[in-house]
């Protein structure tokens, strides 16, 4: 059973920063690729970032490269997303994801069990 609890969202002006956190109640967290997705109003959920087990590799969608940083603390079963230089187009509900699998078409969560997400709103 997977339980993910996201936090850290809020309202910030363009150019501001936020750090999202996700506490994961999953088996073998240390061995799971973790990540973040987001869903803006009227749009489909999209991949934002992923981090492999052991923090060996990190991955980002092009629109956030150089601005967002993903990290994990296996001792706390927690994954973070540091977001800098935020833009209005980053406004969305951000969701944590576990047990990610990388496919030829991108990252996917084969058996999703999404949490409530955390709202990020960037004002212009």
Strand content: over 45%
Given as residue ranges, the uncertain stretches (5+ residues, pLDDT < 50) are none
**Distinct helical segment count:** 0
Overall spatial form: globular
Question: What report would you give on this structure?
Answer:
- With 124 residues, the protein is mainly beta.
- Helix content is 0%, strand content 50%.
- It is built from no helices and twelve strands.
- The chain has strands at residues 3-7, 10-13, 18-25, 34-39, 46-51, 58-60, 68-73, 78-83, 92-97, 101-103, 106-108, 118-123.
- The strands form three sheets. It has a six-stranded mixed β-sheet, with no helix packed on it. The chain has a four-stranded antiparallel β-sheet with strand order 1-3-8-7, with no helix packed on it. Strands 10-11 form a two-stranded antiparallel sheet.
- A hairpin with a 6-residue loop joins strand 5 and strand 6 (58-60).
- It is globular and about 40 Å long.
- The termini are far apart.
- 32% of the residues are buried.
- The model has no long low-confidence stretch (mean pLDDT 96).
């Amino acid at each position: 059973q997977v339980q993910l609890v996201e936090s850290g969202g809020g309202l910030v002006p363009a150019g501001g920063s936020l750090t999202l956190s996700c506490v994961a109640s999953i088996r073998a967290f240390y061995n799971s690729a973790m990540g973040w997705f987001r869903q803006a109003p009227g749009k489909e959920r999209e991949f934002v970032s992923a981090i492999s087990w052991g923090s060996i590799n990190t991955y980002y969608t092009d629109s956030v490269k150089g601005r967002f940083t993903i990290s994990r603390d296996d001792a706390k079963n927690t994954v973070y997303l540091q977001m800098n230089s935020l833009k209005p187009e980053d406004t969305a509900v951000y969701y944590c994801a576990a047990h990610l699998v990388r496919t030829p078409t991108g990252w996917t969560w084969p058996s999703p069990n999404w949490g409530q997400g955390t709202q990020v709103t960037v004002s212009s």
